């Protein structure tokens, strides 16, 4: 058994791990990066990038279908070639992954260790026949998709988004199980690309929306285009030849049957911490067996010399969050015992549906817990009659903004709106700067733009704050 002594060991070669390694190197050259699986990031390989490629293809079809509303009539129906759609998705996905792998290849060989790491104690990792004695350790092991035990019997039909983005052709029919970000994005994209699809949820709500009024509006709006049932209406599932027969109660209360070629499990992701030997450490674990973060601005765990970042930390599974967490964890692992508080940005999450969904700052649910029912005010705008949205035939959506009645400070927003990815950024910057609603209304709003809807919502919020 060989033993190697290092200052910092980073376990995991994804977004968080790569950033942790880079930051730790600013303080010490004695850093190793350990990876037992595929090098690279979930985002580039099976997450945000391939999904956006699929969505872009779906949007091109939808633009053709929407063209007659402008008086532009295509001479023939669009013909979707699934193999070409997936061919571009896979080719561009591999290009993005290639950039990541190129960076990994440039890491000096002595700083890379291939194998699965397991803790033997707070400072010792076992990787095959090698023992690594590390003064500080960063856990950045990422996450994996979860397939419920109830679906195990359908092993031939069950897939995840990981599997979808290795297919060479579009499937014929898919039942998407889960009404979260992945479920919403893929259901709409597949539907627009001609796949027969149904979305069945379990939580009873469209995630990540927490505002009841916005949630109900969004569910109704999406159901105008394709079938979505956030609360599980399935009464039975059974194999029927090479498909799965799903019997469910539809929105009218009648029994319906859907035959799915695939069951796409979009039921969330779980941190990769099960086989790390955490029981051999002094780490405090949460109810899911994940190390708790003692301070989110330092990414320290209950053991001061062990840090955690990215999806493994069971916080926001978003690329920019993983990047920030990795940078903070790596820098503090490198500089220890000197610990610095890193920048944690205002919450910003986006679902690339159409219209898009965006969450900014504190959610409605969080504000109810902090302020109570009457401690904060709400402003609202509908995009049904909004000028710029109507010119584009994208006049569907709602924006809800929240403010502190006492201080006048902008607290957050939830929206289902055209160009929500841009509106979300605008509002996230205002939130991070701690602006009041009055100050936000002093900012310029050009006409005609979708951003004018933000001004209308803020004006409504300002009025309601004064009422309070």
Draw up the topology in text.
Elements: E1 2-11, H1 15-24, E2 31-35, H2 42-46, H3 48-66, H4 82-105, E3 112-114, E4 117-121, E5 124-127, E6 130-139, E7 143-145, E8 158-159, H5 161-164, E9 173-177, H6 181-192, E10 196-200, H7 212-223, E11 227-229, E12 234-240, E13 243-249, E14 255-260, E15 262-265, E16 269-271, E17 306-308, H8 319-335, E18 348-351, E19 356-361, H9 364-371, E20 376-382, H10 387-391, E21 398-404, E22 410-417, H11 420-432, H12 437-441, H13 452-467
Parallel strand pairs: 1-2, 1-6, 2-3, 6-17, 8-15, 9-10, 9-15, 10-11
Antiparallel strand pairs: 4-5, 5-6, 7-16, 12-13, 13-14, 18-19, 19-22, 20-21, 21-22
Description:
There is one protein chain. This protein is an alpha/beta fold. It is built from 13 helices and 22 strands. The strands form 5 sheets. Strands 1, 2, 3, 4, 5, 6 and 17 form a 7-stranded mixed beta sheet that branches. The mean pLDDT is 93.
């Amino acid at each position: 058994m060989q033993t190697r002594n290092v200052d910092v060991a980073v376990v995991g070669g994804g977004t968080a791990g790569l950033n942790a390694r880079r930051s730790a190197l600013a303080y010490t050259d004695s850093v190793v990066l350990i990876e037992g699986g595929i090098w690279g990031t979930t985002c580039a390989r099976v997450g945000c990038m391939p999904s956006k490629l699929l969505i872009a293809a779906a949007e091109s079809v939808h633009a053709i279908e929407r063209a007659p509303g402008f008086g532009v009539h295509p001479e023939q129906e669009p013909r979707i070639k699934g193999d070409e759609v997936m061919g571009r998705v896979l080719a561009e996905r591999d290009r993005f992954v290639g950039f990541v792998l190129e960076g990994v290849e440039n890491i000096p060989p002595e700083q890379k260790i291939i194998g699965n790491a397991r803790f033997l104690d707070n400072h010792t990792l076992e990787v095959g026949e090698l023992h690594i004695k590390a003064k500080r350790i960063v856990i950045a092991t990422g996450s994996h998709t979860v397939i419920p035990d109830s679906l195990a019997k359908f092993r031939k039909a069950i897939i995840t988004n990981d599997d979808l983005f290795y297919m060479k052709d579009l499937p014929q029919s898919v039942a998407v199980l889960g009404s979260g970000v992945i479920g919403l994005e893929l259901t709409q994209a597949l539907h627009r690309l001609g796949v027969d699809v149904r979305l069945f949820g379990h939580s009873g709500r469209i995630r990540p929306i927490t505002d009841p009024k916005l949630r109900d509006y969004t569910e109704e709006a999406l159901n105008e285009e394709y079938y979505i049932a956030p609360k599980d209406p399935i009464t039975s599932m059974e194999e029927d030849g090479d498909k799965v027969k799903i019997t469910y109660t539809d929105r009218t209360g009648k029994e319906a049957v859907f035959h799915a070629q695939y069951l796409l499990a979009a039921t969330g992701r779980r941190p990769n911490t099960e086989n790390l030997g955490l029981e051999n450490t002094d780490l405090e674990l949460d109810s899911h067996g994940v190390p708790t973060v003692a301070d989110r601005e330092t990414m320290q765990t209950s053991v001061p010399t062990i840090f955690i970042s990215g999806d493994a930390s069971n916080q926001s599974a978003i690329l920019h969050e993983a990047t920030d967490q990795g940078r903070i964890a790596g820098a503090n692992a490198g500089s220890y015992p000197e610990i610095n508080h890193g920048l944690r940005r205002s919450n910003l999450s986006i679902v690339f549906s159409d219209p898009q969904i965006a969450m900014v700052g504190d959610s409605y649910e969080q504000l109810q817990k902090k302020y109570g029912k009457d401690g904060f005010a709400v402003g609202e705008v509908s995009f049904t009659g909004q000028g710029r949205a109507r010119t584009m035939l994208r006049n569907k959506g709602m924006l809800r903004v929240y403010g502190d009645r006492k201080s006048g400070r902008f607290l957050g927003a939830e929206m289902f709106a055209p160009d929500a990815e841009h509106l979300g950024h605008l509002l996230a910057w205002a939130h991070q700067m701690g602006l009041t609603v009055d100050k936000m209304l002093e900012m310029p709003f050009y006409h005609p733009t979708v951003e004018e809807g933000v001004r209308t919502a803020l004006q409504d919020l300002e009025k309601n704050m004064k009422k309070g």
